[in-house]
């Protein structure tokens, strides 16, 4: 779509165009400056995003090892991938981690936002406290929680020293629950963001709605449940997409907190890709695994994009 | 009734006739629940920060004996000095300082370049729409959702071809590329919100593409440039994946070096040095966060809510 | 019997005093309009009556019950908001029923009340729709319906028509007036900044400014005998002419402004008012023109500066005693710029205000 105002070249006088049609500048050179300035965007979009993705997908069907080789082997890499224990654990971890962090960050984020929305004192202070971990990197987050969850010095030892000798809380050394140790750290880092999104959503709700509900005598919890939360659907959807696309990428946190251990108990797909590509010189596996990651993101994003942008037309 | 008693609503509570403000106990159940929950949550968020600081100020013997929450008996800054100047990663024993300066040398040009490219780009998209622009823009936004892992290796090949693989310049280009979707969106939305009449008036006055950008759009958009800067500085400073993939041991950014110091397997674990190093690494984004305040919130809102 | 009464109401947000020592009595079945420009405290007062704002001091009675500390739902009020404030995820029926169901009203009773309200407001065909599928006017009807089903004696309207376009506003205005006539003994308090709404709907109008009521009277009095210069200037469109000058009452009472002298023999002075500098106000629509002016107690000849035809009538700008002076003539009479015309008015219908206190003389 073009706008009449933005489409004509800037330096062309009104006389030129109307006098003779042969004077019309060639299409390609209209808006030349804008087009030149858009070259980085076009290059990024075409070469990196489209080109890179297509290239990776194509080479996931090859048996590339140390260097990419165009020797196609069909679905061999995918077969090997889904037979790999490490990959299966990665997927399982991602699944548990993803579901839990979605649920908990939603609940915690919404409750904190709703509490902050009660016209309380020190709102800014509380908000700053809840959000500051979001400014920190996953590496810093992972290392802090590695220290806090250290069984010899951290929370477990402190609780034990208070007299509860049988207290067991060493997620980072227990393969069964290690992913929850990572979850705690991830929630610490990320719930502030969810809270901010929810707070913005709550503040966007017409104040008269609250007044009407009060005049109607509807208790606050019912107002939230039946009126406000249904009204915040767009905010929730946006939050799901943001959190979900972050979950799939989770990498640094695991590297810093557990390096995938104990054993391979806390492996995640993003780490599988990195290890295959840059540590074990198994490029084909890396390409296949990253293609699977792309697929999982597509499963989340495409329905959303369809609802968000495709559905808009039918609403008129 | 004179107005002086109006400020003392509680004095009416005893009277039979309700008058003035509804008497409220300070410690109503509602307030206890609200402030109680918020305080518990605040402790959860603050505790790790506290433990980090406390641990970094203790000596190793005290750490082995005491508990992580107790304040240091004897404050020592030695772990900080060691973390900064002499902590070892592999064979290098010059501390985090090298990583810090690498990160500075990565962050500054990356921030400038990415904001420059994205702001001009957003401006072109908002005010100079040309055929096909929206197709590329859509690809760009969709691209923001593609896991980086998918594009990791193709970029290695590209950088290798142009001889920048493993260099800081290469990493600057990578940051510019991956910062482009969100920043372009940010600037495009902001420039679209500026009244179009202003742009048209400038056109009628004979101003061209760059004149309008520099003389009209740029001065009107300083807040959004600050927001973009906050997004980029924290994002690039905190990056780990691109740093570890596209640079070498000599050029590692701070996060990578920090991870290597703390998670290196050889030698005795010096938790106090580790925590000092962790704080130092987190300091830059933390300072930006606490200085920028509301703008930081605006930054994540801008990043989160699509146009 | 007072339906709503506000006694010595104070409201302040921190240091800012929004309402000060405000008193108001609204009779049973009365339609009272709170009128004022934005920020005058009219909506704030309404919210205090509704119990949506905590007051700093004073008392509020509704139907002779002290409701100062009551929750809004227990005050026996229904409220209609400017932004409609319908619950977007529920149907019209759901919107009407939600409050009642919460209050534990029986199913049959809810159905009965919804049916009555829907009939009264002509929204029966819309009951199954959602608010997003309704036009602005329909939404506001539903919002009124939601107040109606509460079966209360007092209705509070907070600028209910301000979000509608001019045509719908006029339609719904009549609708509200009709509703008030149908619902006997129902008190309505209506906030607006639109003087036409106020004049057409109100039994009494309270004109507010700076958190205080300037004048509380029926529309006729407000229009003809404004209590101060602010009220005079606020009510009436086009607005009233003010001529600066002085009043003297030693001997024959008269108003003097330069060479203009107006005989005030027939002007009904307020008791205890004093002479001196003043503003002489006369409404553009009270000025006679041409032959009709000849009979007026005061006449003058003025030069036409600007002519603004408005269809039914024409607004003419001229100068009297060197000061701007507007008057309204029938739209059919030709008036042209530069012409000298004769005008006249009856000083008895004028309003004179003290220069300093701005109070009516």
Automatic annotation (TrEMBL), chain B:
Subcellular location: Cell membrane
Family annotation (InterPro entries): MetI-like (IPR000515), MetI-like_sf (IPR035906)
Source domain of life: Bacteria
Gene Ontology annotations for the cellular component aspect, listed alphabetically: plasma membrane
CDD domains: TM_PBP2 (cd06261)
UniProt entry keywords in alphabetical sequence: Membrane, Transmembrane, Transmembrane helix, Transport
The UniProt record lists the keyword Transcription regulation: no
Listed transmembrane segments: 32-53, 106-126, 133-156, 162-191, 212-237, 273-291
Transmembrane in keyword set: yes
Location of region: Disordered: 1-24
Residues covered by the ABC transmembrane type-1 domain: 100-292
Primary location group: membrane
GO biological process: transmembrane transport
UniProt membrane topology term: Multi-pass membrane protein
Residue spans of biased composition, Polar residues class: 1-10
Similarity comment: Belongs to the binding-protein-dependent transport system permease family.
Protein name according to UniProt: Carbohydrate ABC transporter permease
Organismal lineage: Bacteria, Pseudomonadati, Pseudomonadota, Alphaproteobacteria, Hyphomicrobiales
From TrEMBL, chain C:
Entry's localization field: Cell inner membrane
Pfam families membership: ABC_tran (PF00005), TOBE_2 (PF08402)
Membrane topology note: Peripheral membrane protein
GO cellular component: ATP-binding cassette (ABC) transporter complex, substrate-binding subunit-containing
Coiled-coil stretches: none
PANTHER family assigned to the protein according to its UniProt record, in alphabetical order: MALTODEXTRIN IMPORT ATP-BINDING PROTEIN MSMX, OSMOPROTECTIVE COMPOUNDS UPTAKE ATP-BINDING PROTEIN GGTA
Name of protein: ABC transporter ATP-binding protein
Lineage: Bacteria, Pseudomonadati, Pseudomonadota, Alphaproteobacteria, Hyphomicrobiales
